[in-house]
Amino acid sequence: MIIGIDGNEANVQKRVGISEYAFQLLWQFFSFDFAQEEKIKFVIYLKDKPLASLPKENENWQYRVLKPGKLWTQWRLPLDLYFHKPRPYVFFSMTHYAPRFSPVPTVVSVMDVSYVRYSEMFNAHDLYQLQNWTAYSVQKAKKVLTISNSSRDDIIKAYKTPAEKVVTIYPGIKKILSLEPRVFGMNQLKTKYHISDTYILFVGTLQPRKNIVRLIEAFSQVIKSSSNQVKSLDLVIIGRKGWQYEEILTAPRKFGVTERVRFLENIDDEELEIFYRHALCYVLPSLYEGFGLPVLEAMQRDCPVITSNVSSLPEAGGDAALYVDPENAADIAEKITAVISDEKLRETLIAKGKKQVQKFSWEKAAQEAFEVLKEVAKNS
Predict the structure, then answer these.
(1) Is the whole-model pTM more than 0.85?
(2) Partners of 338 in the β-ladder
(3) CATH assignment of 186-357, given 3.40.50.2000, 3.40.718.10, 3.30.830.10, 1.10.10.410?
(4) What is the pLDDT of residue 181?
(5) The CATH number of 2-172+361-379 is which of 3.40.50.2000, 3.40.50.720, 3.20.20.70, 3.90.950.20?
(6) Three-point CA angle 17, 20, 23, nearest 5°
(7) pLDDT tens across 245-289, in order?
(8) CA dist., res. 64 & res. 149, Å (int)
(9) Distances (CA, A) of 266 to 147, 301, 302, 303, 319
(10) Which residue from 82, 84, 34 is spatially nearest to 64, judged by alpha carbons?
(11) 141: which residues sit within 8 A by CB, 6+ positions away?
């Protein structure tokens, strides 16, 4: 059996979100023990040659590089699927976009439908592509994989798709980075980035859906409150600039906390580990998330979590997070104050977080996805 996969999302240097999802699934597929399986061959379709970080070719694992990359899923990939033999039994697109025309039954991954819920937060070109290309991909697909029951419900509603067609497969969480042999502590980061001993942390792309402006507003209320027991508190925001981020960058001045907010970009993995481990808490007040993997990443690093009570975030956080109304800055401020001023509460959240992260693994996610692919291949 040949399984074709669009591996382009995994074939990038910097991986976040769907790119990390694709990368982890590829490595898990590569690691499967085929001695107990029928003969399976994976063919990974790419626009460019595979990076060194991807698995090496062998008899069960091959790359097929198709040029040119322009409108790749619209014509170049479909052309190859029609005329190159032998064809895959099933084709798995680990993005919203499946080949426009294909003789091969297709499975697609749709992380979320934020572009439907919050269309005003996307630029016109991206919105058109997300809305139109995802619509035909979902319609043509034999199965649609998604990463939370919240997203599953949204997909079924948005595309009037039969419920049995959409499958929830929770993502995993990668292993904690070892900080050895390099020794890089908090003191070095304090000096390098000019931050306080005490800080709360946000990690994510700077875009409106992440609700960072309201987080900054809530932070200003925390540090101005007479009940705040942490006087030298900073807010550290780590993430690349996404889109419509201008209001985010000007928010500290608007709320009078310019000297207390640090925007950091291009933070390496070892530094990020330190930031998580030393933060008083991690706050993700998103308006909408397909899953909210950073919630688990923070828990894995013994960092108490405050997050929104909407969309998929309660699925990710379980009983190990403190939840807020993301539309209410005062509620966010109240929960931040509670966590930073109560060591026992932080310890309770950390202990529950250790148990919560054990529920999610990439090995389990890949095995569940693999079973769906085999089912589609055999039934088509």
Answers:
(1) yes
(2) none
(3) 3.40.50.2000
(4) 42
(5) 3.40.50.2000
(6) 150
(7) 999 999 999 999 999 999 999 898 889 999 999 999 999 999 999
(8) 34
(9) 27, 20, 23, 21, 32
(10) 84
(11) 98, 106, 107, 108, 165
Report whether pLDDT(349) > 80: yes
How far from the centroid of its chain's Cα atoms is residue 73's Cα?
A: 23
Region(s) of the chain under CATH 3.40.50.2000:
2-172+361-379, 186-357
Give the position of tokens 């397909």: 290
User: Two tokens at 142?
Assistant: 């034999």
Cβ atoms of residues 7 and 47 within 8 Å: no
Burial class (CB in 10 A: 0-12, 13-18, 19+), 86: exposed
**Cα–Cα distance for residue pair 64/337, rounded to 1 Å:** 53
Question: Which residues neighbour 7 within 8 Å (Cβ) at sequence distance 6 or greater?
Answer: 22, 26, 44, 45, 46, 50, 54, 63, 94
